[in-house]
């Protein structure tokens, strides 16, 4: 509800400025009349607990070779965000946890016992290295952004997805 109010307010400010008889960029009493429309939306996002990341998520892609090394080291949690039927039909990366994309936001906020019961694995800690995968890399990027917004620090995704994984595994 607060977010809805923020969106309404952020849309109102530019409209008021648009209809203002004072030309944009002019100053009244030393103050500029033009106000960027995003100024108030930032505060609204901040107050609702949703965080948006710009350049902070720039180095989040994991290559096939890096993923293989991470899996060999067993210090990484691999979460496959495809639907269960996709895993049954196409296959899965050994050791990965299946948490469908639509469940990621609630799953990562579950009690550790509930997560273990529902997904048959340990709930990743916010400091754990997590790699998200999907079929082709689109859903895994979305899951990465969701996890980062929940405070997970070391999140990555495999942009090649299951398609690249199976192709590379069969050619070795």
TrEMBL record:
Coiled coil: none annotated. Residues 72-170 form the Rhodanese domain. It comes from the Eukaryota. SUPFAM superfamilies: Rhodanese/Cell cycle control phosphatase. PROSITE patterns: RHODANESE_2 (PS00683), RHODANESE_3 (PS50206). The keyword Nuclease does not apply. GO terms for molecular function: thiosulfate-cyanide sulfurtransferase activity. The keyword RNA-binding does not apply. Signal peptide: none annotated. Keywords: Transferase. InterPro entries: Rhodanese-like_dom (IPR001763), Rhodanese-like_dom_sf (IPR036873), Thiosulphate_STrfase_CS (IPR001307). This is Sulfurtransferase.
